[in-house]
Amino acid sequence: MSAENAPVDEAAAAALWEAYRAARPDRALDTEPPSVEVFGDHPALTDELLGLVLDGTKRATASLVAEFRHEGQPLPRVGSHWIACDSAGRPRAILRSTELRVGPFSSVDAAFAYDEGEDDRTLDSWRDNHRRYWQRVCPGIGVEWHERLDVVFERFEVAWPPEAADR
């Protein structure tokens, strides 16, 4: 893709995290600040997917284990948080992992595809869209795409801000 997302606003993300920690000390138990990320690999996709999160449609995401390794990030764990930004780099939501599973691309099921909230929410479209996405992403992380690559299947809730939070 020719267009790129803007760099994330780390200061604004830290402020969002501190607001959440002050309001929800019972939930913000991470000892390290959360990672600050974007969905997708180009601005239109980033904003589309974030919009699905904010409107309550998208409550799952999938990433290659190789993407975490390439970025030097640990795999998420249940209860961990991450901050999702829009394509302009503005932090918009704090997400909390509620369920995680690592398995090959072929192990995705229809319920997970539906929870991702993308396209028509079917398993076929999930496979099509994610196959194309990872075929674009893999060369940039030095990995050859194949369907046996391990995928992190993650379900999440929106923890913050209050107007978008699931509870």
TrEMBL record:
Residues 37-160 form the ASCH domain. SUPFAM superfamilies: PUA domain-like (SSF88697). Transmembrane segments: none annotated. This is ASCH domain-containing protein. CDD domains: ASCH_Ef3133_like. It comes from Agromyces luteolus. PANTHER family: CYTOPLASMIC PROTEIN (PTHR39203:SF1), CYTOPLASMIC PROTEIN-RELATED (PTHR39203).
